[in-house]
Amino acid sequence: MQEPEEKKIALELLETEQAYVNRLHLLDQIFYTELMKEAKIGKTVPEEVVKMIFSNISSIYQFHAEFFLPELRKRMEDWNCNPRIGDVIQKLAPFLKMYGEYVKNFDKAVELITAWSEKSPPFQELIADIQKRKVCANLTLQHHMLEPVQRIPRYELLLKDYIRKLPPESSDRGDAEKALEMIFMVAKHSNAAIAEMERLQNLWVVYQRLGLEDDLVDPSNELIKEGPIQKISTRNNSTSEKYLFLFNNMLLYCVPKVIQVGAEFQVHLRIDVDGMKVRELSDTQFPHTFLVSGKQRTLELQAR
């Protein structure tokens, strides 16, 4: 008799999970452990760097090796009397939120490996030595580290396939659909973590361009728009080049620095968005002009 289609997919899930646990073992028990051992003796890189590269790989490895894989294996052994996997995945899916941290850290980890390989030959040699071993299958550390990033989308695909192949009357349908929904939420969760990290990085770059002024640096601020602007001087009918940064809570009116050492701009004025008004002007001499008035001051500006 031919195996039912849904069982083939469930077996594929189990087989790929076994291979994945082997990959996690390589990352956590071989790469991380050996690099950490050398770091402790002070031969390669600071311990902190090794921890930053591998993020929370130990927790991920433990979860898959000690919980997820054994549960799946048990379920496949019982398949003939209990043909279902949806409930197992549903029970363990919330733990996959751990991936948010790892995924968020991935780019930084790869940068650290590159930077420290150049800085510390012993570090580079140790990685090269591990990569030569049979268990690495001629692949680099970076390649192996990509696997956890790709694992959750893989679950999503396999589970979608599994649901598609389930007979309409299957008792596993409800649980499997719920599990898929949970995995979809986990994927969204790690994408949101990446988006938040990128937002903070971009914000930090903006703060550096503004000279890291204490009262400006706030991680909750959101940059909405920035760009050059002309300031109109009504006294002598001329314009001068200025630069605006619009945040969710303030408008920064800046002057580009001629000598760009450190900061790129000097903040001349800060207008609170709360109570700020913007009004378009019809000036034939200066087209595209508008008036920004806030508690602090009123500015007449011209856009390009």
TrEMBL record:
Coiled coil residues, start to end: none
The DH domain, residue ranges: 5-193
Gene3D superfamilies, sorted: Dbl homology (DH) domain, Pleckstrin-homology domain (PH domain)/Phosphotyrosine-binding domain (PTB)
GO MF: guanyl-nucleotide exchange factor activity; zinc ion binding
Membrane-spanning parts: none
Cytoplasm in keyword set: yes
Keyword check for Zinc-finger: yes
Any GO BP annotation: filopodium assembly
UniProt keywords, alphabetically: Cytoplasm, Cytoskeleton, Metal-binding, Phosphoprotein, Repeat, Zinc, Zinc-finger
Pfam families in the record: RhoGEF, SOS1_NGEF_PH
Compartment list: Cytoplasm, Cytoskeleton
Residues in PH domain copies: 222-304
InterPro entries reported for this sequence: DBL_dom_sf (IPR035899), DH_dom (IPR000219), FYVE_RhoGEF_PH (IPR051092), PH-like_dom_sf (IPR011993), PH_domain (IPR001849), SOS1_NGEF_PH (IPR055251)
Name this protein carries in UniProt: FGD2 protein
Species, as recorded: Sapayoa aenigma
